[in-house]
Amino acid sequence: MIDLHSHILPGIDDGAKTLDESLEMARIAVADGIHTMACTPHIYPGMYMNDGPGIECARFRLQAELVGNGIPLKLVTGADVHLVPGLIDGLKSGLVPTLNGSRYFLLEPSHTTPPPRLEDSVFNLITSGYTPIITHPERLTWVESHYPVFQRMVAQGAWMQVTAGALTGAFGKRAQQWGERFVGDGFTHILATDAHSTGRRCPRLSEGLEVVRRLVGDAEAQRMVVERPIAVLENLSPTDFGLPQKEASRPSAFGKWFSKVRSLP
Question: Which GO terms describe its molecular function (predicted)?
């Protein structure tokens, strides 16, 4: 499996605090069946002043530690990005990294307040050539009054990422119910861990994936943790892999990805 959302880099945001914690998170991920993980620390002006070059340096250092400790986890670069002025310019310049240099990037809305002109902003990002993957909508306090907004953004071309732990109740009943609705209604493209630690928010996908299988079947579950993540890392067209569906078949990108997974920078 591939995990496209994690805070595994040590000491860079509110995720792993130490190298030892990062290494233990990596061991947990590998034991769960994850072979590739995106390092996606927050970029939030005034709080987490990360940027693309800094994140890549931190990823490179942690990858070397994983190799030295015999942990077979491949790391790629990304970020958990907030909707702020100048975002498109940041994406174009590389100060705001996309996932593995692709058109896809993680977009985190405010947990407590719906961003003004959210739909227009997402539309502008899409028309600029990017595919925002909106992170954990099931956990936002304002999802009840804005569910149709998320549906419309999917129709525009945005993707949605539900947190695996939300589906197992790790974030409470409310997030669990909304996570099941996003998945069951066909508005979830990616399942990810959003891992921050070795505790409650650890990098495990498998238990949440079992919930997805019950809701939409094996084929769609596989697309959320293998095929669409491959499409992201290979920068394939979102129109080829985008629309969630129950027990339907899609062309596979497995061969191309697995032939080069070990050679990614």
Answer: manganese ion binding; protein tyrosine phosphatase activity
